[in-house]
Amino acid sequence: MTIAVLSEMPSGAGELSVWPASTTPLPHGGLAVGGVPLTEIADRFDTPAYVLDEGEVRERCRSYRDAFPDADVLYAAKAFLSRAMVRWVQEEGLGLDVCSAGELELAVTAGFPPERIVLHGNAKSPRDLEAALRLGVGRIVIDSPSEIARIAAAVGPDGRQKVMVRVVPGVSAGGHDKIRTGTDDQKFGLSLTDGGAQHAVKRILGQPQLELTGLHCHIGSQITEVKPYLVALRRMVGLMARIRDTYGISLPELDMGGGHGIAYRPGEPVLDITALARRLRTELARGCAAAGLAVPRLAIEPGRAVAGPAAVALYRVLAVKHTGERVFVAVDGGMSDNPRPALYGVRYAPRLIGRAGAGAPCTATVVGRHCEAGDILAADVELPEDVRPGDLLAVPVAGAYQLSMASGYNLVGRPAVIAVHEGAARLLVRRETLEDFRSRDIGD
Ligand SMILES: *Cc1c(COP(=O)(O)O)cnc(C)c1O
Looking at the structure, do residues 66 and 33 belong to the same domain, yes or no? Predict the structure, then answer.
């Protein structure tokens, strides 16, 4: 993975280590991303705005293709999806992982080849399955026993659908309890330990409409160490060997999911993608040789690590309040565009943009404008003491699980998404307006 190390930058450059690699300092406290000054974007497109660096997304896709030349790399669309994102990911040679008819149809109508798409979901709706079969999705990942007969019936007597089984390998990993999905005490997948996965495999093999291509697992998110992936991989290979022993078939595919951790603040640990690739490959070869299995084709599904570091959220300061010991800096967005701090206690490193702050740094809490005391974007961060209404604040690493989780709370409206690339900015997704809310609200 490319890390932004801008050696020509003045002191304090380390603070930009989590920003897109294209980030360059400008005079008077300005910053440009993708060759476009952030102040210019705020003036032209208003705030809050999400600034997505096309080059950074593409470079991250390429780093994955380089690290995993023999594997399928699927971008997990739920991190962030737009038509432009679909095109970039396709042009960079990745596949796509989706988990609803909405994500699937957006991708396919934007021109993504359906056979390179995998459909996930712990509770697939009739509409999800109808869209998957109608559009000819490449794989459906079975997540509960009841799906097996449902999908087989929907495929019809003459059809055949490729499926995988989502296995819970019993590995606990990830940045927060709410994003740990590798153990038996959460809703995803079929258990290895209670035999649920083995039972599902047996039933799928008994359905002529279904072609079992392999096993899938996704152990969690924001994982910064390789080890849990290796433990999971060993268990998955163990299950493949048992399937071969019982049914005489070698499954050709193994999907190890995503969850690759990134740094939200300078100095935080990052999953080393090159090390992950090397050690997964070695472990897979070793495990398969020991079990006498043909080596399956590996797939991975990074979401956060592709989109997260590629976007910056831009806010305007609306109010600054000094209460007792605390300084609250309130901006024009908040939990409706970024629920992650409230959900997972995530920490960010916001930065004043467009003027050099005067005076000593002070410790401030950046809050949103929503009617919840928990609407905190960044607690205990350093900002210039003279931070004031009208200032611009930028929050890096804003590309994943922010806009895709955005809500209509307080009818503030979801922000615009602006792509920057080689000195040009263009609107990808327009700001949600009162007209959008009114047009859906059709009763009286
Ligand atoms: C969420 C998810 C991913 C992507 O996770 P990241 O942490 O964004 O890399 C991949 N696969 C599945 C099945 C998921 O649910």
Answer: no
